[in-house]
Amino acid sequence: MFTAINIFGFAVSLMFVLLLGLYVQDELSVDSFHENKERIYRLEADDGAQFAPGLAPAMAARYPEIEAWTRICTKDRYTLDPIAGYTDETVDAEILLTDSSFFSIFSFPFVEGNPATVMHTWDDVVLTESFARRLFGHEPAMGKVI
Question: Distance between CA atoms of 81 and 68, rounded to whole angstroms?
């Protein structure tokens, strides 16, 4: 009986050690493809509260160690009306609102366009490849109106 309890306890503790190791490996590998990954930090509140819009520029002015900053706001659900000539149905989208410095910090690969020249006007958008295919099929998405 003692042997069975010891083996069961060892198996359970070994399972937790393996799960913890897999969790740590997963957390350390998230977004590891960015060129400056060791210099990217995220500031967030413990209670999920959002920061004031002016906090990022104020912190950059106060702390010279901050090389660049960007703010990110997510919109979970947004519905796009049908686009004439491309889709006949409404399309649900997840939207990420950012500053123009987003692509100078994060090095996401681009299929079309140049990361250095996007997001400099109010009507600029960057689409993921899968979302652009949902909207426009296999046609190039550059210059299209959404």
Answer: 35
Q: CA–CA separation, 14 vs 55, rounded Å?
A: 45
Residue 64 has pLDDT above 90, yes or no: yes
What is the 3-class SS of 64-128, one letter each residue? CCCCCCCCEEEEEEEEECCCCCCCCCCEEEEEEEECCCHHHHCCCCCCCCCCCCCCCCCCCCCCC
Closest CA to 129 of 144, 112, 116, 145: 112
**Model confidence at 88, in pLDDT bands (50, 70, 90)?**
low
Are the C-beta atoms of residues 72 and 98 closer than 8 Å to each other?
yes
Yes or no: say if 72 and 97 are a contact pair by the CB < 8 Å rule.
Answer: yes
Residues in the chain: 146
